[in-house]
């Protein structure tokens, strides 16, 4: 087991400009401080609330890789702007030449005997009233927001990582009070227990387009199921009709068999009757002839 730090994470916490019904994004930069290939994976306690791109990857030695965390639009404001959501970044050393396609969940299993480094990031919400910076532009005050724009979908190909510059998220570093630090330690303990029990679900890179595609696929599947149900019902009706026709054919076949047997009996009786009359006549003639011959020639 190594004691060397694998990844350096900046910023140490995720700060989002919170506005109702609006998305907010923040970038995180990871630096590989080792001389080996390092695989990382991002987890969170609220996977339906956040979108991470990419949520896993490979970082070459001494190189950097960044990922964007987007908080989905929220309809309600949390009490006192306090958020207990946590992120967990797991990293481990992988063989040279490993690509993203080779990453599996088993790589980050603690019972595998491999060294798994874990870094925890807490979420901090910034209200619009406390975050803007007013700058005079043409005599008017222009409000600058610290909200980081969403990057275009960019997933590292293989092990190549293109490190973009660190965004405005670092501007808010070091603003927490002693009370927040105590809450942070308590919340980190909760994330640690979740991580040990493997109850922290993986981040799924979902966005509005993916949700729309899922809805369309759901409707298509529903339509296909309806069509298949209709076909099954039609097939059941056809099977019932065929069963009824088979039963009728069986009855007709039995009737024809009985009629054929009756006809055979009648024909046999007629043949017996037709063949028995000449024989009796011949016997009578023979008997009369014998008697006449006896009387004529005593």
TrEMBL record:
Keywords in alphabetical order: Membrane, Transmembrane, Transmembrane helix
Compositionally biased intervals (Basic and acidic residues): 141-155
Gene Ontology biological-process annotations: endoplasmic reticulum membrane organization; endoplasmic reticulum-plasma membrane tethering
PROSITE patterns: MSP
Gene3D superfamilies named in the record: Immunoglobulins
Location of the region described as Disordered in the Swiss-Prot/TrEMBL record: 135-163
InterPro entries: Ig-like_fold (IPR013783), MSP_dom (IPR000535), PapD-like_sf (IPR008962), VAP (IPR016763)
Transmembrane segments: 274-296
Name of the protein described by the UniProt record: Vesicle-associated protein 1-1
A GO cellular-component term linked to this record: endoplasmic reticulum membrane
Domain MSP: 6-126
Top-level taxon of origin: Eukaryota
Transmembrane keyword on record: yes
Family that this chain belongs to: Belongs to the VAMP-associated protein (VAP) (TC 9.B.17) family.
Source organism (scientific name): Arachis duranensis (Wild peanut)
């Amino acid at each position: 087991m190594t004691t060397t730090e694998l990844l350096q994470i900046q910023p140490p916490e995720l700060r989002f400009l919170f506005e109702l019904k609006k998305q907010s994004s923040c970038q995180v930069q990871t630096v590989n401080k080792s001389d080996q290939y390092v695989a990382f994976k991002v987890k969170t306690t609220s996977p339906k609330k956040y979108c991470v791109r990419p949520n896993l990857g490979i970082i070459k030695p001494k190189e950097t890789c960044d990922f964007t965390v987007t908080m989905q639009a929220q309809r309600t404001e949390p009490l006192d702007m306090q958020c207990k959501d946590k992120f967990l970044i797991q990293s481990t050393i992988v063989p040279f030449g490993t690509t993203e396609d080779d990453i599996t969940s088993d790589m980050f299993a603690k019972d595998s005997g491999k060294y798994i480094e874990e870094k925890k990031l807490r979420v901090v919400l910034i209200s619009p009233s406390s975050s803007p910076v007013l700058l005079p532009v043409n005599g008017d005050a222009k409000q600058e927001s610290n909200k980081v724009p969403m990057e275009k979908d960019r997933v590292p190909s293989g092990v190549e990582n293109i490190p973009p510059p660190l965004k405005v998220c670092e501007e808010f570093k070091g603003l927490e009070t002693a009370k927040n630090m105590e809450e942070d330690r308590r919340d980190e303990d909760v994330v640690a227990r979740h991580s040990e029990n493997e109850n922290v679900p993986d981040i799924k890179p979902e966005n509005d387009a993916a949700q729309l595609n899922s809805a369309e696929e759901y409707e298509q599947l529903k339509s296909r199921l309806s069509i298949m149900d209709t076909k099954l019902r039609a097939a059941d009706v056809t099977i019932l009709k065929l069963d009824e026709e088979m039963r009728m054919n069986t009855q007709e076949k039995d009737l024809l068999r009985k009629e054929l047997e009756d006809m055979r009996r009648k024909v046999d009786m007629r043949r017996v009757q037709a063949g028995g009359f000449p024989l009796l006549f011949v016997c009578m003639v023979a008997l009369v002839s014998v008697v006449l011959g006896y009387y004529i020639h005593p």
